[in-house]
Amino acid sequence: MGLLEGKKGIVFGIANDRSYAWYITKCLVEQGAECAFTHLPDEKGKMERRCRMAVKELGVEDPWLTPCDVSKDEDLDAVFAKLKSDFGKIDFIVHSVAYADRQFLQIGNFHKTSREAWTQALDISAYSLLAMGQRAVDVMPDGGAIISMTYYGGEKVIPGYNIMGVAKAALEHTTRYLAADLGEKNIRVNTISGGPLRTLAASAVGGISEMFEHQERKASMKRNITGDEVGNTAVYLLSDLSSGVTGETIHVDAGFSIVGL
Ligand code: NAD
């Protein structure tokens, strides 16, 4: 029997079959979880098609899939209302969403970040976790688990990561405050600090190729990580194996962040 047999939840952030959310879903489904999905709305329906194709590869033929721009309260309200009416209650939420204007993700450009770009990055990449936590209370009456994705650039300066690093710092601390508020309701909130992975979002970050090389040289295990390694950590955090763990940032980075020099 799988570790997530009988558990249902929702995954935000599958853009294609290279997304961290896709690897997380792969591992959750392998452990028996039932997953619902959202996609970023776009006029041509490309995002919906890509998400549908990606989950089909995981054997999910007719997915529960609905549009959601996480910067819009009305979209989030609609998603959670639909979850409640279709499932009654859920057990987990996967937040694997981030955005920042790529012109400010170039090395040396952090000081040029506009107020608008700052606000948008923090809103989509960090506030959205709080917005989901708020709404989770209603669909997790017996408790549940929420995870998000962060990166070491939220703890230390990584050239090119820039405003996204500030957003990740906010995400990691939002994780702690949310965990403290929701703990009595038996809702756990944790975040995974994953190593670099070649995804759409990663391609927007200036100097990303150097990050992969640097990871291989500096990480304790002298290598990059795989999507499955993050996916399996998600299984742990969303299953009862981690029933006493909340408010944590768990590094899945082959020991990159423990090395000083
Ligand atoms: P990705 O491009 O595959 O996923 C990012 C997702 O965010 C996409 O599905 C996109 O549609 C969604 N998104 C952006 N703006 C949105 C909005 N307004 N509303 C709803 N969805 C929106 O890239 P990824 O690398 O898989 O990113 C997933 C998460 O992993 C992000 O939080 C990212 O910061 C984090 N992360 C990535 C890396 C890496 O190297 N790829 C490392 C550590 C953490």
UniProtKB/TrEMBL annotation:
Upper classification of the organism: Bacteria, Pseudomonadati, Planctomycetota, Phycisphaerae, Phycisphaerales
Family recorded in the similarity comment: Belongs to the short-chain dehydrogenases/reductases (SDR) family. FabI subfamily.
Top enzyme category: oxidoreductase
Documented EC number(s): 1.3.1.9
Recorded metabolic or biological pathway in which this protein acts: Lipid metabolism; fatty acid biosynthesis
Annotated keywords: Fatty acid biosynthesis, Fatty acid metabolism, Lipid biosynthesis, Lipid metabolism, NAD, Oxidoreductase
Organism: Natronomicrosphaera hydrolytica
Keyword Lipid metabolism: yes
NAD found in the keyword field: yes
Reaction(s) catalysed by this chain's protein: a 2,3-saturated acyl-[ACP] + NAD(+) = a (2E)-enoyl-[ACP] + NADH + H(+)
Designated name of the protein: Enoyl-[acyl-carrier-protein] reductase [NADH]
Pfam families xrefs: adh_short_C2
Gene3D superfamilies per the UniProt record, alphabetical: Enoyl acyl carrier protein reductase, NAD(P)-binding Rossmann-like Domain
InterPro entries documented for this protein: Enoyl-ACP_Rdtase_NADH, NAD(P)-bd_dom_sf, SDR_fam
